[in-house]
Specification:
Chains A, B: It comes from Anisodus acutangulus. 2 copies of one chain form a homodimer. With about 325 residues, chain A is of the alpha/beta class. Chain A has helices at about 5-20, 25-40, 80-90, 115-120, 135-150, 160-175, 225-230, 245-260, 300-320, and strands spanning about 50-55, 60-65, 70-75, 95-100, 120, 130, 155-160, 185, 195, 215-220, 235-245, 265-270, 275-280, 285-290. In chain A, the strands form 4 sheets. An 8-stranded mixed β-sheet of chain A has the order 7-4-1-8-11-12-13-14, with helices on both faces. Chain A has a two-stranded antiparallel ribbon with strand order 2-3. The longest helix of chain A is centred in the C-terminal third of the chain and has 20 residues, at about 300-320.
Chain lengths: ~325, ~325
């Protein structure tokens, strides 16, 4: 049966979760997810549940020591996930935003690195003032982000390690299961391929006294398979493939599409990722470019439009 | 001659810098350093040059690929360096703040993680307002940070990789050399012990198709020796030793003091580092604790007081 996971994957997954440090705040996360799903399943439009997307964003870390001083990180500003979240909200989706702590937030992607010190000053009469240059984007960041959270259409859940990321992703997928094909998984996070299993990890800081450091990292189990086949088998699944070598990019995207039975793989190359991406599905390869004429136009706008179009077709087909 | 570096260290250092990717913006960094030193050497008090401290802060990264997707990072919020910078400025030192991009900034250490979204709202008449709870710390952060930069007593220089960190540290030490014993190096950054030499690094993203990943990391040359003996031989040198295992902490601190001829090593344990540190010098071991009675008191206040006291004695002894 093609829908079944191989035994080895199953065992690797079980052992990954069993050996992971326990996730903190599980009850709170489950509660906020339940409230989010109840709200968005009941506020139906035309008798159909609202559409929901889980956007993952930023890089996961891999601790090298239990009392963590050193870790391996995956470069990701979180810009793709944050900007995509904005466009999903605009077209009426509700969003669970699973993001790496400290990375880019929705509606904040055009702000300077340190908005507080770079955009504000204190006037002579001791009022805090935003400078004229940044006033509009700062206002927009605060109002739209706050409004989305207050209206209950944006749920933000932070992670740091690969363990937290996969543990929370599992909680989300279980919560969204009742939404069936109305849910999208838009997996833009840069997830570690390799990790140090918790039980084989150093407790203390690795000492540097003698010679080079040899490390053996294990492969992270292929969680995309588990998410796709077991955690959320009815949802619309989109994964990302980032490469620095454009010659292998499309082949790798095709492979991911088939291997994990994704509905869509978004292929992007590190150096051009803000200009264009290639959307790979079973039937097509579509290059999506940002509108280079409009100032501040982002590639995420046409990308989300395309995703929404294909998702609608998917829902319609399953409804028929 | 005890002041000489061993040939092997010298060669390792030369090869580290020769193989490192070229630092961007060297001319600008040199210009800002020259202006900083000119200003602070000329604005002398009692005929003596102003005292200057180079505070390093935050962790360095080690890229695992040239087109960097993955890297090893050292955990550090930058709180120690940022808070210490505030206290050095308060007692009249000028500060070169060499910090990891995105880490804690001076006068901002008691702000929430995301000050813009957590402290501000937009009023009905479309003004941006800070909430009452955070108004004072936000005002203080903006005014004091801006004032210090504007007065030319705080120069902020950001880094990300181990290569950038050591390249900029070298530029700073050369610039501060004329200040002789008036300069302190307060090396609070969490610097990588291991790295992948640039020439042996993968160009492209490491592929995860087959099995576990074996990595061999080389030791970073002992730059503390080079800084102490060659780059800034007259300055007052303070390094930090962070361990997770308290049983080896003091022995490691003593070893660093002797091996690198530091004037002071500040020993701290990961779990108690915000409560207390142990200042280790040739003649003493002093435990410095934060004032647990005063709300918001930080251990960096008494720590900087002690450093300034010992630095004054050092300057006086060399002047005599």
């Amino acid at each position: 049966d093609a829908d079944q996971l191989p035994e080895t994957t199953k065992n690797e997954v079980i052992s990954f979760f069993e050996s992971a440090p326990p996730l903190k705040g599980v009850a709170e996360i489950e509660k906020s997810l339940k409230e989010f799903v109840d709200r968005n399943a009941s506020s139906s439009v035309n008798g159909r549940a609202n559409r929901v997307v889980c956007v993952t964003s930023g890089g996961t870390t891999v601790p090298l020591e239990k009392l963590c001083v050193r870790y391996i990180d995956n470069f990701s500003s979180g810009h793709r996930g944050a900007a995509s979240t904005e466009y999903f909200l605009k077209v009426g989706y509700s969003v669970v935003f699973l993001y790496r702590r400290g990375t880019c937030q929705p509606f904040c992607s055009s702000l300077p690195d340190d908005p507080l010190l770079d955009c504000f000053s204190v006037s002579n009469d001791s009022n805090i003032e935003v400078d004229a240059l940044h006033a509009e984007i700062v206002k927009r960041a605060i109002t739209e982000n706050r409004a989305a959270v207050a209206e209950g259409i944006l749920l933000k859940l932070p992670f740091t390690t690969i363990f937290e990321y996969l543990q929370i992703l599992q909680l989300i997928s279980v919560s969204l299961r009742d939404l069936g094909p109305s849910a999208i998984f838009f997996l833009a996070a840069a997830v570690s391929d390799f990790y140090v299993p918790w039980e084989s990890m150093n407790l203390h800081k690795i000492q540097s006294a003698s010679g080079p450091l040899d490390m053996r990292l294990a492969q992270v189990p292929k969680m995309l398979s588990v998410l796709r086949n077991e955690w959320a088998p009815m949802a619309f699944h989109i994964s990302f493939k980032l490469e620095t070598d454009k010659h292998i990019l499309l082949a790798k995207a095709d492979m991911a599409l088939k291997k994990y039975k994704m509905h869509m793989v978004i292929a992007n190359e590190l150096s051009t990722r803000k200009e264009e991406v290639i959307v790979v599905t079973e039937h097509e390869k579509v290059t999506v470019r940002r509108d280079s004429i409009r100032a501040g136009a982002e590639v995420e706008r046409p990308l989300v439009e395309l995703v929404v179009d294909r998702h609608s077709a998917y829902v319609k087909k399953l409804d028929a």
